[in-house]
Amino acid sequence: MTDPFSYQSFAVDVNHHIAHVQFKRPDALNTMNKAFWLELPRCMQAIETQTDARVIVISSTGKHFSAGMDLGVFTDPKSVPMSGDPGRMAENLRRVVMQLQDTVTSLEHVRLPVLAAIQGGCIGGALDLVCAADSRYCTRDAYFTIKETELGMTADVGTLQRLPKLMPAGVVRELAYTGRKFGAEEAHRLGFVNNVYDSHEALIEGVMAIAATIAGNSPLAVTGCKEMLNYSRDHSVADSLKYMATWQAGMFRPNDMMKTFQAKGQNKAPEYDDLFPVKGLFEQ
Fold it and tell me: Which Pfam family, just one, is annotated for this protein (predicted)?
């Protein structure tokens, strides 16, 4: 039987309700090759369906978090035809780009919070990726860049859509138009990253501690927070309040609250039931 957590691009470890997804191609600067784009959404789904994880941490190895898109993704004629009818070639390319977008969006679709721990360079497609995480943390030597502009193309996998929701729009436009690097301190000052750490070791330790705090809360309450925050980002306050009321009417039960009160009364940590795994219609 195939190991659901055997990947070419990253290693996965699940302990104490925390799934740690770690990029493992430092010699290639953890570039996002074809295998990466195929594996990441499968990984998110496997964590959600086959583990007891309540939070996901994404980190990397080597000097840089990721140098971004491996250009081989777009030069493989098996994936992107290089000749033939222009209309059909364009339609095919559109589908390829949407598949790449779906890979990044898998971080939003997974019901667990996703924390990104970033060291060194976070370039191009890697910036697309971390923009879709719930929270970002980095080392003092980290830097970010919308590299696509400098290469002669428009970023197309999510940065231009998500970054304006995370940072001031005028700054995002400058970064997109110029392609310049912005470092850890600027990213922190603008609210893009939550905290800056002095070393990679301190980064991982700090982010894993935050993940442990999240994992100690009711998983139903936490997934409700993610659902509501993502919905509210894309809808009006009025619509979001109505959706919140509907969520509470359907999903809220006093069980976890009672466990919280009882645990506090006994001066110990509450123990919550895991979420039911998300299964396909015909899976057993």
Answer: ECH_1
